[in-house]
Design brief:
Elements: E1 14-16, E2 21-28, E3 32-34, E4 37-44, E5 47-50, E6 55-57, E7 60-61, E8 64-67, E9 70-72, E10 75-76, E11 79-82, E12 87-89, E13 92-94, E14 96-99, E15 104-106, E16 109-111
Parallel strand pairs: 1-3, 2-4, 3-5, 4-6, 4-7, 5-8, 6-9, 7-10, 8-11, 9-12, 10-13, 11-14, 12-15, 13-16
Length: 120
Amino acid sequence: MLGSADVTTERAAGYIGPGLVVHGRLSGEGDLIVDGGFEGELSIEGRVAVGPAGRLKAPVTARLVTVEGRLDGDVTASEVVVREGGRLHGDVRASSVGLEDGGALHGTVTMDFDLPADLD
């Protein structure tokens, strides 16, 4: 599984640093790292990484979401990973969901995947 360590500020299209709080709607291509705060709506075609000090309060749509800080909002993604110390409060819809020891997910999980033809 990929994590925020795979999304660096050099490669990320967007970065919300410590001490910065952004309000509004953010959408686009590329990756986003949140080490500060964001409140609103978030739709990213790449990866979203919430760092240990990051606080994200928004519904999130992305390819990959990793949480090491706190995310309050529903998440739709191909893959969601809640790392040690991470907190996700909201419903998750994804093909793959990972919850590491010490991470917390409060909400429902809906997994999207195709069953093999012999199991339909």
